[in-house]
Each structure stands twice: as C-alpha cells, then as structure tokens.
Amino acid sequence: MDIADEESADKESTDKQSALDGGQSDEALFIVQITDPHLRKEEDGKLLGMNTRASLDAVLNLIKRNHATPDALLATGDLAQDGSIEAYQCFEEKVNRFGCPVFWFTGNHDNREAMRGVAQGSGALEKVVRMGAWQFIFLDSLLDGKVHGHLSDEELTLLDEALAARPDLHSLVSFHHHPVDIDCKWLDAIGLKNREQLLEIIDKHSNVRCLLWGHIHQEVDSMREDVRLLATPSTCVQFLPNSESFAIDNLAPGYRWLQLNADGSIDTGVERADHIEFQVDYNSKGY
Q: Calcineurin-like phosphoesterase domain: from which residue to which, for each copy (predicted)?
C-alpha cells in the first residue's frame, strides 16, 4: 500500500507497493463504505428520533459478521452531526476495531478543525491512496456554513494531478455530496454545485472507474458513460427516494461493500441491519 507517497514499514504494504511498481496486481481489493453516521457529543444523541451511536454499532457489527477483514474502510462524511471532538473520538474508537486502514473526510455537518484534531497523524485524512491496481482519491466538498457542496480549485487540481500521475491505475474518486441529480427535488437542491468542473476533469482521464459518495441517505447504482456512480445508505436514518420535499424512508441503516478487481471492474452491494428495530420520527419536517 502506498499512501500519498509515504513509505510504510509494514511488510504487507511493502509487498503491495512492490507489486504495484512491478506491474498490475492480480489481487482484488475488498473495500467497505460507511457514510453519514451523524454522531453527537452525547452518548444518547439522536437524529430524527434514532440513536446514531446505536445504529452505527449495529452496522459495524453487521460488517464484522459479513466482511470481517476488509482491505480498507471508507467513511464518506457527516461523521458528526454537531462537529464535536467527542463525536470524532467516538467514531475513531468504533471503526478502529477492524484493524485495516480507515479513511475519513468531511461532509456538510462536519467540522474540519475538530476532525483534524482527532485524526491527525493516524493516516485517516490521506487524500491519495494507492493499493494494488487501484488508486483512491478523496475530496473535501464541504463549503463552510452551507448544506450544498463545492470543490475548491485546490481539490480539483489535486484530482487532476493524481489522475494524470498514474494513468496505469484504476481510480475511485470519493467525496460527500452527489455530483448528479437523483430525481429527488429537495436533495438535488443541496448537491455538489460545481459538478461541471468535477465532471470535466473526470472526462479527461480514462482511468476513472467509479465516483462514490454519501449525503443522500439512500442507495444509487448507475453509470455515466464508463464510470460507475454509487451512493450508499446512511448508518442511521434513510431519506425517501424520488421525493419532492423532505421525507424519511422506513429502510434500515446499512453500508456498501465493493470488490475492486484488477481489470477495473467492480462488484458491489448494499447490506442493511434490518434485523434490528430502530425508532424513527417519521413526522419530522427536517433536520
């Protein structure tokens, strides 16, 4: 594993880097994505009536049962609802149980400073990660004080340069806000506002295989030309697809698994903790 050009002393990482330098690895990578846990400072903190620590625990237990040893775990924003240090400390403690690399980045509810304060030095905030035949590029779409997303010039330049630097690697690009409309009027109003700039860069590079995001608390699996477009359920409350205004779905919290094959193809699916009963306030008009 080569993380943002920093060498690791770990033997497995060295072996993967050697395979990468010598040619494409024929080993698939198994990745787990979780998103939008919306943790709070308080242990009994809730979102729309659901205890978000309890729902995250249920999803992590399900991952542990189904996929105990992923190659990496990706957390795609809105880790905290209140931006508190305590929420990020809680998140770090819970996800470190897997013993694999875990990568975080911000969503619109997150606080960059608090997140950095907890995760700095752990490797969780790396922007470019290379494993086997794949490259992961993690972007920050948080626009302070806004619900919708925006990618700064610095983020877009990082993306363009990382894709250009390793055209031999299949690339998965991940961020928080959705870059395409999803036929959900109220959510489409708070997606990624400068999506055209993002997609222009994506279209320049033939090595992009997947765009992966959170934010919308529902599942999406579609294609844009040769690029897979994937969104994933929240580990807490779900939003109703195809809704004009704010609406809560009755589906259970979940996660996405991805098998990234050496030929660039992707096998993926969503698993839900539907064996657990959760309390949700379906009468809520927003959050």
A: 31-218
